[in-house]
Amino acid sequence: MDLASLHKLLLFGIEKGVSDIHFEVGYPPHYRLSGELLGVTKVPALRPDDTRAVARLILEARAATLDLDRSFRELDVTYDLPGSGRFRASIFRQRGQIGVVLRHIPYRVKSFAELNLPPILGEISESRRGLVLVTGATGNGKTTTIASMVRHLNETRRAHIVTIEDPVEFVFEPGKCIIIQRELQTDTPSFRDALTAVLRQDPDVIVVGEVRDVQTAEICLEAAETGHLVISALHTHDTTSTIQRFVGLFAPTDQDQVRERLGDALQAVVSIRLLVARSGRGRVPAVEVLRMTRTVRECVRTAGRLGDIAELMRRGRDLYGMQLFDQQLLELVNSGQITLEAAMYACSNPEEFERSMTIE
Question: Fewest 10 Å CB contacts: which of 151, 262, 291, 319?
Fold first, then answer.
C-alpha cells in the first residue's frame, strides 16, 4: 500500500459519504455507509505489510515514529487529506498484526438544522454555567453534535472556549469566540492535567472529549460548579442511564453527595441514536433531551427517583423543549423519515410505542 493508493481509497470514501474506513489483515478495505459495512470488491485482501504501511503513512504525516513491531498496542491520531477531508485514525494491534480504522471528519462543522438536530440545542449551548452531557453509542454522532454546539456559540457569543480532545477532530474557524483546542499526548498528558490547568486559563466554556473516569468526572463537576459551562460526552444509551453512569463513577460512599452536586450543576442531557433513513441513503438522528427543572433536580438528588424523570420529560415537551426518544421516533415515522421497523428497533418501550402508533 503506497500513499497514492491510500489517498485514492480515502477520496472514494469521502465522495460516497462513508463514515469509517477499515484496513484489517485478511480483508479488503471496508467502508461503513449509512450504518452498513461494505467491502471493496476490486481490492484483494490486505496483507500484514499493507496495514503496517497504512499505519506508517499516517504516522509519517504527523512526523511521528513508533516501533509497530514491539511495544506498540494502540494509538489515536488525526490524518489530513489536504483539500478533501480529515480523519481520526485508530491504529491498533490485533493477533500480532496492525489494524487501522479511519473515521471521516468533515472540514466544515454543520449547523443544528443541517444535522436535523432539535433547535433547543441552541438554547442549551447558551447556558452560562453548569454541565451538559451528550451521550450515545459509538458512532452515533456525539462528537459531531458537540462540534455543532461549539459552532453555534462561535456564531452567537463572545467567549473563550477550551476543548480537550483525544485527538482533536473538528477544527474551528475564527468567529466571535477565542477557541483553544488541546490534544492529549501532543499538548497535555491527560484529561485530568488539562482540566486542572484550564481552570487557570480564564475559560467561559470547557469542552471535554469524554468523561472516562472518576477524576475527569470530578473536575468537570467542579468546573461546572465554579461558574463555567462544561460540555462533554458519555457512552450511555439514554438520559437516565447517563445520570446513573456519572454517579456510578464515584465510590459508593461518595454517591449521595455526588447526586446533590449533580442535581445542582447539571443543565441538560442530550442522547442520540442514528437510524437509517427510509430512503436507505444516509441516517437520521433521534434525540432525547432532558432539561433541568426544579422537579427534575429533586429526582437527580434523590436515590430511587430517576424512574420519575421519563414522565416529567414527556409532559415537559411543549414548555421546556424536553423529549423522549419514543416521542421523536413517532414523529420521524409519521413524517416518513424512517420506517416503523427502524423505530421499533430503536425505541425504549416497544409495547408503549406500538400502542401510540395504533392511537395515531
Answer: 319
- HSE-up of residue 232 (Cα within 13 Å, Cβ side): 31
Pick left, alpha or beta for residue 17 (phi over 0 → left; psi -120 to 50 → alpha; otherwise beta).
left
- pLDDT tens digits, one per residue of 119-172: 999 999 999 999 999 999 988 999 999 999 999 999 999 999 999 998 899 999
User: CA 234 → CA 12, 98, 212, distances in Å?
Assistant: 32, 28, 8
Task: Give the pLDDT confidence score for residue 190 in this predicted structure.
Answer: 86
Is the pLDDT at 359 greater than 60? The verdict is: no
User: What structural domains and CATH numbers belong to the chain?
Assistant: 3-105 (3.30.450.90), 120-323 (3.40.50.300), 324-360 (no CATH)
Q: What is the distance between the alpha carbons of residues 354 and 330, in angstroms, rounded to a whole number?
A: 10
Helices (H), 249-339: 255-265, 294-301, 309-315, 317-320, 325-334
DSSP string, 139-190: TSSHHHHHHHHHHHHHHH---EEEEEESS--S-PPPSSSEEEEEEBTTTBS-
Q: Is the peptide bond before 167 cis (omega within 30 degrees of 0)?
A: yes
Sign of the C-alpha dihedral, residues 285, 288, 290, 291?
Answer: positive
Check pLDDT > 90 for residue 52.
Answer: yes
Strand order in the sheet with 74-81: 36-39, 30-33, 20-23, 97-105, 85-94, 74-81
At residue 33, the 3 state secondary structure works out as strand
Instruction: Compute the Cα dihedral for 295, 297, 298, 299 and give only its sign.
Output: positive
Percent of the chain at pLDDT exceeding 70: 97
